[in-house]
Amino acid sequence: LARQKATYAQILRNKNDAAKALAAAAAAQRRLGAEIKEMIRKQADRGNIPSEYNGTLAWPMAGDVTQNFGCTGFAWEPPQGSCAHFHSGIDIAAPMYTKVRASGDGTVIFAGPNPYDPYPKAWIVIIAHSTNLVTWYAHLDNANHPIRVSAGDHVDQGEVIAYNGMTGRTTGPHLHWMVELNGSFVNPRLFL
After folding, report:
1. Which residues contact 112 (CB under 8 A, 6 or more apart)?
2. pLDDT at residue 67, as a whole number
3. Interval 96-106: pLDDT, tens
């Protein structure tokens, strides 16, 4: 009985630790989102970002979709709505150093390690296509093939912005591609 109680107590501690980690990740995402919103506002004030995007987005990389947008069984994804675990983008697996291209014309808002990720940090590029439409590209290589764009750069649809990698928490080389519309992540397939 004492062993069962100890095991149960350890399970509760593990669940508590997991809940704290998910809460910390969600808070970090909110802080980054607030910074990105401010960066977009500044670029829009300079006339570098249009108020609307006229066009469709393109797939940013060739490869196999290994995880779609929406409810998932992967425990490390945070809860959202009625989903115990929710994936906010599309994962595309491909060999290391596959070219990652801009999904549409836009202005690079951020390029570098996610400042709010715990170690190991994922390297990301964020592109504003309009003041309310933003694409995110994560797990980019930062060693052998550094990111090719910088904040403030204008990019054209199809332009190589980076290379597929394994930065951050990942089990293999892939691109985590997200589309943000009006401050919320939405299914990227809606824009293809």
Report:
1. 123, 124, 147
2. 81
3. 999 999 999 99
What helix, strand, coil percent values describe the chain, rounded to 5? 25, 30, 45
Distance between the two ends of the chain, CA-based, in angstroms?
57
Q: 29: alpha, beta or left, given left = phi > 0 and alpha = psi -120 to 50?
A: alpha
What span, in angstroms and rounded, lies between the C-alpha atoms of 190 and 192?
6
Main-chain phi, psi angles of 4, to 5 degrees: -65, -40
Question: Encoding tokens for residue 4?
Answer: 């069962």
- The predicted structure's pLDDT at residue 23: 72
The model's pTM is 0.81
Sign of torsion, CA 175 179 185 189? negative
Report the relative pairing of strands 99-101 and 90-93 from DSSP bridges. unpaired
Burial of 184 per CB tally in 10 Å (0-12, 13-18, 19+): exposed
pLDDT digits (tens, 9 = 90+) for 160-181: 999 999 998 888 999 999 999 9
Nearest to 163 by CA among 116, 119, 111: 111
* Mean pLDDT calculated for residue range 36-50: 88
Helices then strands, counting H and E runs in the chain, come out as: 1, 12
Sign of the CA dihedral with 192 first, then 39, 78, and 64 last = positive
- Name the band, by pLDDT with cuts 50, 70 and 90, for residue 108: very high
